[in-house]
Amino acid sequence: xxxxxxxxxxxxxxMKKRRDAERLFVAEGEKLVDELLEHFQCELLVATxxxxxxxxxxxxxxxxxxNAEELKKITQLKTPASVIGVFKxxxxxxxxxxxxxxxxxxxxxxxxxxxxxxxxxxxDWFGINNIICSPHSADVYNxxxxxxxxxxxxxxxxxxxxxxxxxxxxxxKNIPLYGTFLDGKNIYTDTLxxxxxxxxxxxxxxxxxxxQPLISHRLFIxxxxxxxxxSESLNVAVATAITCSEFRRRMF
Amino acid sequence: xxxxxxxxxxxxxxMKKRRDAERLFVAEGEKLVDELLEHFQCELLVATxxxxxxxxxxxxxxxxxxNAEELKKITQLKTPASVIGVFKxxxxxxxxxxxxxxxxxxxxxxxxxxxxxxxxxxxDWFGINNIICSPHSADVYNxxxxxxxxxxxxxxxxxxxxxxxxxxxxxxKNIPLYGTFLDGKNIYTDTLxxxxxxxxxxxxxxxxxxxQPLISHRLFIxxxxxxxxxSESLNVAVATAITCSEFRRRMF
Lengths: 252, 252
Description:
- The structure is a homodimer.
- Chain A is α/β, with parallel strands linked by helices.
- Chain A folds into 2 domains: 85 residues, CATH 3.30.1330.30; 154 residues, SPOUT methyltransferase, trefoil knot domain (Alpha/beta knot, 3-Layer(aba) Sandwich), CATH 3.40.1280.
- The first copy, chain A, contains 9 helices and 10 strands.
- The first copy, chain A, has a 6-stranded parallel β-sheet. Chain A has a 4-stranded mixed β-sheet with strand order 1-4-2-3.
- In chain A, helix 6 runs parallel beside helix 9.
- Chain A starts with a helix and ends with a helix.
């Protein structure tokens, strides 16, 4: 049975401040939780009999059985799932050397947790294992982000740090710095490398003026027909997807 | 001033039933409303003094001035915008002949209004002017859809109809029918035509078993490296974006 303290403990984790202090995050839903159980330490699992009876082993420090009514009290979803897990946040360090041979995505103040989660899922699909978030980006442990990753959070490492020093470091080492701009070069025909930093800008403002001069490759996803009066921009997750897809297409 | 009746009238439009009966929809925010005012008949505009004082002409049947407090009562957004417009739903007819020379997107039970809106924005970017939605797809006039289109709704026509007869019609006329599948052919190297129907499936279930046998071109967006243990799938809007981008890349 779920105690009042349990409910308080779990619902408090909807606040970033609390997640940071406890170094925990929450995930919901059978498929997602099953995947995370294989990768992260689980502190607490709240689940229905149905969920638990289907498992032979569940690796969690504590397991609490709960019914649908109880799960309703702690869910962040519209329709509560059969299982909610509280996981330990992993600790990663970013080795900039990875940029010598691999692609890395940098997010410059992405605000929407759903966009961040979708971008993590995209990175995973395209074998990009590291994402750098500027300190003011959405929180990767926001439940909307976690749910939107659909489990990709288990394979993609996110790191929060100032972007300016990182871009300066790349520039010094001649590591390509890519960004998308309305006046950039056609991404379909410009040279793309198998390594480098792909910088994606804020939903409203794009790449910040401080970072812009550091970008070495200004790219553009052409609308069709070219110069048609269409939407002014693409959603940032969508632009990330097309950009990553085009980088990977060249490597086949 | 905003009357109780006004509030009731606008908030009732958050229900599909009511939108359908009145043939109306609601949009919020200066940029979006400004764009829609150029394309759709506006029945009612509720706006702050600030918004109105910046305009020389506002083409709306009725205009009501309101302050931030009043706008809070009718907004569907977390932070109310300076303007909310009630617009007449446009009436479109779909001419299947368009498929002889153009690309059209068909959505097979897309459930999430945000995904639908994002797909409309993608279609607009890539010059795809028609989207067919199966009858059980999300409602294009849901406020989440409208907001996610960022104005693309003004240029892309959505039509609700049964997909099976349409696909059968295409098959008879040898119009290519594209769909993405995990066992499809590499989209980067397979032949793509400048016309045809691109079918995108439901978020959880993909393309329905009834439609699958009708698809003439089974495509796959390769993950990287190929056969890596990555996410099982991409978000449907993301998959639509990559697919449309790849079709258009071939036409440059």
